[in-house]
Design goal:
This protein is an alpha+beta fold. Strand 3 and strand 4 form a beta hairpin. Strands 1-2-3-4 form a four-stranded antiparallel beta sheet. One of its GO terms (molecular function) is acyltransferase activity, transferring groups other than amino-acyl groups.
């Protein structure tokens, strides 16, 4: 990546990209957690976290969603960066 991503509010149209990013980042960060990145955890991301949190995405210059920040009030509920974008300033 040659430029920093733009941070913008999450839109419902981002759901598939965000869930894919979350799954890949979670599997890489937690390889020891059985079922990480799918199943009931994926359903919770779709049905609870993306609905209840104040979500923001990092979008690369080419339009690819490379990061997800979920805020719960003044606290960070989750921060996920696509494995290929880690170390680029996306997080």
């Amino acid at each position: 990546m040659s430029a920093f991503p733009v941070v913008r509010p999450y839109r419902p149209a981002d759901e598939e990209a965000v869930v894919d990013l979350w799954a890949r980042a979670s599997k890489e960060a937690h390889p020891f957690v059985e079922g990480e990145g799918g199943g009931a955890r994926e359903r919770a991301v779709r049905e609870v976290y993306l609905v209840k949190a104040d979500n923001w995405v990092a979008e690369a210059p080419d339009g690819t969603v490379v990061g997800l920040l979920g805020l719960l009030g003044a606290e960070i509920g989750g921060l996920f960066v696509a494995p290929e974008a880690q170390g680029t300033g996306a997080g």
